[in-house]
Every structure is written in structure tokens, then in C-alpha cells.
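thread: overnight batch results

M.L. [08:02]
morning all. the overnight job finished for the chain we discussed friday. pasting input first so we're all looking at the same thing
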Amino acid sequence: MPELPEVETMRRGILGAVGGRLVEVERLACPRKPINLAPRVDAFRRRTTGQDIAAIDRIGKRVVLRLGSGDAIVIEPRMTGLVLTCDPPDPLYLRLRFTVSGAKLREFWYWDRRGLGHVRLLTPAQQLAALGPTKLGPDALTVTAELLRERLGGSRRAIKVALLDQKAVLGIGNLYAAEILFVAGVHPAARCDQLSRPVWRRIADATLAVLEEAILYEGSTLSDGTYRNVLNQDGGYQNQHRVYDKAGEPCGHCGAPIRRIVQAQRATFYCPGCQRRK
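M.L. [08:03]
and the structure it wrote out:
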């Protein structure tokens, strides 16, 4: 957490900076564990000051600011990072301030409670080496049944575990994998190499439906309250969850109690009635 819908919400929230010029990138004093910032702040500032923001993209769970020089600022929030345009949840954990001129959005911040996030300035060659198609899979919003089957159909892994593989499909994490498989009616422990073409179609359709709906609701803010949108407000998709973190509660479709299991050291939630193992 955050996953694709939360990061896409961050990206959309700072699109007002596109067309502007970076006046300054300032590393703020924070007494907690420092984030991974590369290169060092003096070199980072030298290469970004005065650069136009040509576009703001997303690569999986990363926000990517593309500069006129061809370099890109890659913000990877990981567990607790946020991109904000207003007052933060707690100013103690502000890490970076981006100041922009000549655009609708004049300022935004990177905030990270646990300091696990990365902010990197990459050249075009470094972008290809770290984030290119040989390193990362296609974006989950572009998947088709054939693409999923091609990339995962030969695996003996459980489908829930396989969907988390960022080299296979980019952007899906633990929460949305559980929701996708519920909507598709697929047991999370079903083996990839035993799934039929119709099942792959259901998974692909559910992937697009769940992720697009979650983006519409601006992501999920869980009980720990960590994720916030750029305006420091809760997302809304947690109110639409069907199975995630609902162990013991009745399924909204069939009434069976939602179950919790552990797969690859991650909690998985599913409905034994709607997601029968074949």
C-alpha cells in the first residue's frame, strides 16, 4: 500500500504542475529515517532547477515527472509515502518540497511517515534499465486475457501470488488482488497453469473493473489511516471492498463468512461460497 489506484490518484492530483518550471526541489529537515534520495540533494537540485515539467506519468506504483531535459523524477511511495498539495497529516514527516512557476499548481510535497519510499532522478538510459519492459510487466490497466495467460499461464504459482509479481503485471498489490479474484469468482489458491481461457477472461475483466472503480473513488484508506489523497482526505474505495480485511463477515453476495488465509507471507481474503476451488 499504496497500489495502482492510490498512485494514479496522486498522479492526477498534481497534473496542474505540467507545463510549469521547477524552481526548486528542497529536502526538508526530518528527524526520522531518511528516504532514499538519489542522486545526492545538491546534484538532484542542480539537474532539476529550471527544468520544465513536460508530463506526469505513472509506472505501476510510481509517479513519474518527466522533465524537459529527458530526465525523470521517479517517486515510489512504497508503504507510507504520499504526494500532497496541502497541509500534511503530520508536518514532522515532510521530506521534499517541489516549487513550480508558470503552472496552475505552484507547490507540492512528498511526505513519508516510515521513510521507506524512494525518490530518484533518472537519465533516459537509467529509466530504461530500471523501469523498462525487461524489468517490469505491462500496466494492469492494459491487461487482456491473452496477455495474462501468456505471462502467467505457465506458472505453477497460486493466482493470487502471481498477480503480485510486478515483472508479470504492474501495479496490483495485496488488497486489489483479493478484490479482483472475488469479482472474477476465482479461488486465490488456484494454480495459474490449471486455469482455462474463460477464467483468464474473467480475471482480466475483473482487473480492469476493480482498478477503474477504485480510481474513481480515489483509492482505499484503511483502518490505519495512512493513505490520503493529495488534499489530505480519505479515499473512498474502502467502503466498496467485498472481501479485503473482512474475515468472519458475511459475503455480500452469498452470505458465507469471508475467510482469511496466508499466501507467500501475505494475508488473503476470499469467499468460500463465491470462490470455490475447482
